[in-house]
Amino acid sequence: SDAGHGKIEDNPKILSGPVLTNSPNAVLSKSLLGRYNDLPLPGDKVLATYIWIDGTGEHLRCKDRTLSFIPKRPKDLPVWNFDGSSTGQADGHNSDTYLVPRALYRDPFRRGNHLLVMCDTYKYNMEPTESNHRVKCQEAYEKCKDDEPWFGIEQEYILLDSDLRPFGWPPGGFPPPQGPYYCGVGANKVFARDLVEAHYKCCLYAGVPISGTNAEVMPSQWEFQVGPSVGVTAGDDLWMARYILHRLAEEYGVIVTFDPKPVQDWNGSGAHTNFSTKKMREENGIIEIEKAIDKLSKVHMKHIKVYDPRGGKDNERRLTGLHETASINDFSAGVANRASSIRIPRAVAEEKKGYLEDRRPASNCDPYAVVDALMRTCILNE
Ligand code: ADP
Ligand code: MN
Ligand code: MN
Ligand code: MN
Ligand code: MN
Q1: Is the Cβ–Cβ distance between 307 and 360 less than 8 Å?
Q2: 318 CA distance to ligand 1 centroid (A)?
Q3: Which parts of the sequence are annotated with region: Disordered (predicted)?
Q4: What is this model's ipTM?
């Protein structure tokens, strides 16, 4: 393995940001809330957590409100607002920013009729904010609904301790080189499986279709897969899965990072996006898959620009050609090839139908932007 040597302090990325020596959350009692959790609320109140993407295009915010009815669909919920000047989404002198409910999930933290609500954001004049990529994605999906685009996204992430070093890594240095950790089992191979397990259950309860999970190549790196989800819903589902993960990790006093390369010379994190249309899934769909790959090959850089929140800058650190990635500068495709931009899974090549895997999206990508680009390039021929 080519795992890094030297001192972790040499890596500026990992130590950027405010550093705590321990997490205040980690030391709080985890059972006290249980004394109040089942208090009956007057008049069947429903608590709704509105969740949205902030001005970074990468981080989530949330706030709660009380409803006196049980919403059945997003439109039943009131449009709300927040102070966009505090989230990088508006100026201070005109800061009201609108939250429009788009997708409902059951709340695994409060249970009952309580809800998690995925929202998108609009400026004072009801124009989408800069970080709202959902609008375009929804429009693209409306145009290609009949092709039934499915997306299965593999979300990789890394757990950090409150000092922003990977959770469980030895003080000031590195664990033994990568090799035994991927799909590992054992107390010296994987850290915080409790959190991963809780996340899996909470997502399924909420209505996020997690299809699997595994420990990844770097210690304290994990993956879960969402989907297949249809069209724009793939974005709603993945963002909600991210929210649930951050929210659960609070309880453990652990930090989740979706940064695509927190530690140089170790595996980074991606959001491999598995994509198919109805035709690709039918007999001889491999022909459709190859057509899509041909289209993708012609607009490689256009996709790279929307596959991380910084126009390709984040992926520059990750798509180096090493650590199971293809170089950011070249487009490539291959059967069972994990060093290519696009991989055709072996089973798909054998059955001559199925899906392709786009390995380029960074772990901190906006799935609305990724799904939008794939539909527009491969189905709408834009
Ligand atoms: P890998 O072998 O790359 O690690 P995973 O098993 O982690 O693959 O993830 C495969 C993903 O592909 C899952 O999210 C799964 O739901 C998704 N998937 C399976 N079939 C299809 C399909 N026909 N279209 C789109 N996504 C699919
Ligand atoms: Mn206020
Ligand atoms: Mn995977
Ligand atoms: Mn993986
Ligand atoms: Mn993959």
Answers
A1: yes
A2: 21
A3: 1-20
A4: 0.98
